[in-house]
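Whether sequence alone determines local backbone shape is best considered at the level of individual chains. The sequence in question and its structure tokens are set out directly beneath this paragraph.

===
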Amino acid sequence: MQQPLYILTEDTQRTQGRNAQDSNIRAGKAVANAVRTTLGPRGMDKMLVDASGTVVVTNDGATILGEMDIEHPAAKMIVEVAETQEESVGDGTTTAAVLAGELLARAEDLLDSDLHPTVVVEGYDEAVGIALTAIGEMTLEADLDDDLLARVAESSMTGKGTGDVSAEILAERVVAAVRHVTTDGDIDHDSIHITTHTGASSSATRLVEGVVVDKDPLVDAMPRSVEEATVAVVDVKLDVRKSSVDTEYAITSVDQLDAALDAEETELRGYASALADAGVDVVFCTKKVDDRVANHLARAGILAFGNVKGSDATAIARAVGARRLGTVADIDPDDLGYADSVDIERFGTDDLVVVEGGAAAAAVTLLLRGGTEHVVDELERAVTDAVDGVVAAVESGGVVPGAGATEIAVVSRVREAAARIAGRKQLAVEAFADAVEALPRTLAENTGMDPIDAMVDLRTHHEREGRAGIISGGRTGSVGDPVEYGILDPAAVKREAVGSAAEAATMILRIDDVIAAR
């Protein structure tokens, strides 16, 4: 008899055919359902506790999926959808994850009806093109002024924890931050910094036209506030120079020892003198600063900080218009920066350095406050989404109505197009529309509305008015025009969510064999 041929090791687990498809689809649906209840202005939070006991409370989809300990490979692909959405446009992660799960759920019904996965994939691909066209048609033609961008920022933060400060106030500061780093229509996103600090209520959050650094001065005797400061950012040790080779010096008299100490002291004093002679008022050094140099700087009235992080040094240099110096000898005035003020402010038991450059500052900082770490962490996530949303709206093609209105328009257009598609592919296109429709239905459920009645009203209002969304108010919601209520989303967020969700779903549907080593 012919001996059996083993290609895989005995401990390899293999799942084939429909069993593999069912397993992958169930995993994708489970991940989507984990974040479904967080969608919308009345969405709920999730509490995630890791093995060490660290607690995260949030309704941010990317954070929830990132914190979950997921092992199933198909489920990880849905997580990657959220990560891609976060990296590309910074918002809409929950929408993308929920849509991917819904596309898989609708595909499961089609597979049960003996529709081939390839036909489903082709139908989904065609539906994506129709959906993107519908999103383009829903894009508002209005100018992106500050009021409109503030509505975008506020919509991004609605439903997220912002403490005792309103989303409206935060939105105004977010727009001001983005406008501050915009030059000729180009946004320097890297110049927008977000810093958090506990010890005060969220209403103490403020916009700093400059940067905020968590550092203490080298010597307590140094000034705590400098107005109209000349700033140097130094990338060299202000310490006694050491030889690169091992060297021994033979000292045979006290005079020789005194001479050596005098030379060392002269070198250290020279650092402070060079900075003082150049007119420097504030020094940020990324390397070690000798205590004696610090004392000389203090006597010269110079405020100095040592061992500054490289990222902080870059932000400071950008904010004050300075170049990072590799030496303090022969300082060129053009290499120095200028700040309206450099202040050491006390926050509870900590000191923070606030470098403000005024209107000329090339960087801004949103200093977020909160009573606890959980509050400031969630506030940071909300503000980050708002900043990314405003940037996406400006850079990537305008805004569309929110509150599910754009999704309803997509559903209407896709269903209309499906009627003209021949063959079984029509079923997949219609299934795509059903999956997208699950988004406004979920919004209605989370808002407290009856989902069936809400969907009927949405379709009717959309056909009659051209725009219809779920407007949250009180304990329930109503159907209305989101634009009238200032509920707006970046068009790029919708495009990315539809595209990335469909790509993940179709990739999972193509898999019919899972081979995994134990």
